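Q: Could you fold this chain for me?
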Amino acid sequence: MSTIKVYEDKAGGVYLTRDDGPIWFVGPVAPDMEGNFEDDAQGWHEGGWEPNEVDGQEIVDSPDGLEHIATWTPEEGVQIERRQSGDVVAGAGGQAYLGIDED
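A: Sure. Below is the predicted structure, expressed as structure tokens.
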């Protein structure tokens, strides 16, 4: 079973990791990426897509400064991370990538 996690930095850039693999900087969320997390995660799980340097993604050394904003698994789909208050953890960039708007 694959577990794909998405993280966000303070500038709204998004990052992906699968299982215990490396953390990939996917980029700042451009209009063509809005709402793509579930499709990207499923594609990575099924082997039809993966982050790669040719497409502009890059591996980062550390998750320091990143917020875990959501997880995808084939069994449960997307699970959005929420603070104790019930607010989503994701900022504007992360919400755009997740395809939600809760501000």
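A (continued): The longest helix spans residues 37-46.
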